[in-house]
Amino acid sequence: MLDFKKIIADKIKEAINIENIREYIEVPTNKEMGDYSLPCFKLAKEMKKAPQMIANDIKEKIKIDEEIISKVDVVNGYLNFYINPLAITKTVLENIGNEKEQYGGSSIGNGKNIVIDYSAPNIAKPFHIGHLRSTVIGGALYKIYKFLGYNVVGINHLGDYGTQFGKLIEGYKRWGKEYNIDENPIDELTKIYVRINNLCKEDEAVLEECRNNFKKLEDGDEYCTNLWQKFRDVSLKEFQKVYDLLDVDFDSWNGEAFYSDKMGEVIELLKKSGKLVESEGAEVVDLSDKDMPPCLIIKSNGSTTYATRDLAAILYRARTYDFDKAIYVTSYEQILHFKQIFEVAKLLGLDKKYTDNLIHVSFGMVQLKTGKMSTREGNIIKLEDLLNEAITRASEIIENKNPDLDNKEEVAKKVGLGAVIFNDLYNSRIKDEIFDWDTMLNFNGETGPYLQYTYVRTNSVLEKVGNTPELSTVDATLLNDNASINLIKELYNFGEIIKQAADKNEPYIISRYLIDIAHLFSTFYTENKIINDDKKLQDARVYLTYCTNIVLKTGASLLGISMPEKM
């Protein structure tokens, strides 16, 4: 594929011989300022000239091929480049035609390993909408990195260890016979958890018993271990229903408990470093020189912590996966926790290749209109209920709009789930999200269903024609109107958009891009009669419709959204 940015950078380098000039080249937000622009004020200090003078000098020296670059001009210190529309049209049509569903992909990740830790619900607790973001963002990043050629390992680091299990074991000891765990496991375990948690608030002695239960679990006590295994098994069976709905899978289900026999080495390494010190009966790593509170490694009762297990996981993942990046997708509430363990990980004797590439991909919280959700208070919305409700609502809309549609249930599932996933991925991940049925399931505007509807519209055109024309028969010169050119230019950017999403770990970059494509196709569709008497013109416009169809479907699949063929 012609890399116009590289072509421009090479031409500029010939004129002024400055390294890394490509990094300075931008895409102007104002399309009238060209397709690419060099802001020369960035070179003023190095070249000791005014930006306007630099821009004019480069313009005088540069040699352009008008079949690729149709015009170069200078505006207020900016050197603007205009790509020949026919060159970009031919490039897009040929590349999408040849690469099809692989268009936009890359081999930049070949030979590199990425570990992504995402979803990670807590065993014996409801899989609620607060877990949606980690599951959906992590799932999208998994697909994006794979599309760029990386070897990706998706890990569901289950919350299957910790004091909460000491509480649950204590509650089960006291009231287990009152609850039918086999029939309705998560709801019943949640009731026990809420009840024991309230008792812990009233009685410190009960809380101490819970802590002791967890210590027994760590020490391999048979009764506690068997109960823990039961809680884990019934929970995973329930969680799988959600993963099946979202079509999310993992390469590893190793949760916190997996590292229970691997923490001893972490503790020994920290002791050898001389940084593990006693504090009020507990053992911590002092991080005051990094302006952080101490990182708790061993509690005063001898039990380990979430941090100890995360450090053991870093050690294990470095050795097992030889990762180039280890990404953790969790809420911004854990920013301090990850800053601490990433700092402490430097004391484990690992190569800097690993400790320098630990990345926390944080995201904002999902909140109810009434405030923050809490399992302890029993104030949650289960994710399975939410997804099923989305499908039901989508089904009602489809029934009203197209009662004769085949496979209505399958379409409703794709539309309902697509609405929820797209809503979650449409804004920067760090932004807090207030959960609102009306917003999440709005079928108008910049939404998942709108994207799917645009895709279905492209399908409808292709179906009416019967066979997509052969690329060799398409006359690219006929796609010369503004609506066609604007759509083509945006389709050209697809590969760069995917790389940006990976570089910033921000799937919303793809979401926004796909909405732009949908808008541009809508304009193209409105302003151009696609099916008409001029066969050559029809072939060109149908082929552009086909190209749009490919990019919409591929882009949506990277977000975890399935496209219905009809709606």
The CATH topology of the largest domain:
Rossmann fold
| Broad CATH class of the largest domain | Alpha Beta
Biggest sheet details: 4 strands, parallel
Overall mean pLDDT: 93
Low-pLDDT runs: none
Rg over alpha carbons: 28 Å
Can you name the CATH architecture of the largest domain? 3-Layer(aba) Sandwich
Task: Please describe what this structure looks like.
The model has no long low-confidence stretch (mean pLDDT 93). The chain folds into 3 domains: 4-83, 2-Layer Sandwich (Gyrase A, domain 2), CATH 3.30.1360; 118-367, HUPs (Rossmann fold, 3-Layer(aba) Sandwich), CATH 3.40.50.620; 383-559, Isoleucyl-tRNA Synthetase, Domain 1 (Orthogonal Bundle), CATH 1.10.730.10. The longest helix is centred in the middle third of the chain and has 25 residues, at 222-246. It is an alpha/beta fold. A hairpin with a 2-residue loop joins β2 (69-75) and β3. The strands form 4 sheets. A 4-stranded parallel β-sheet has the order 5-4-9-10, sandwiched between helices. A 3-stranded antiparallel β-sheet has the order 1-3-2. It is 52% helix and 10% strand. The chain is globular, with a radius of gyration of 28 Å. α4 crosses α18 (482-492) and α6 packs across α7 (185-202).
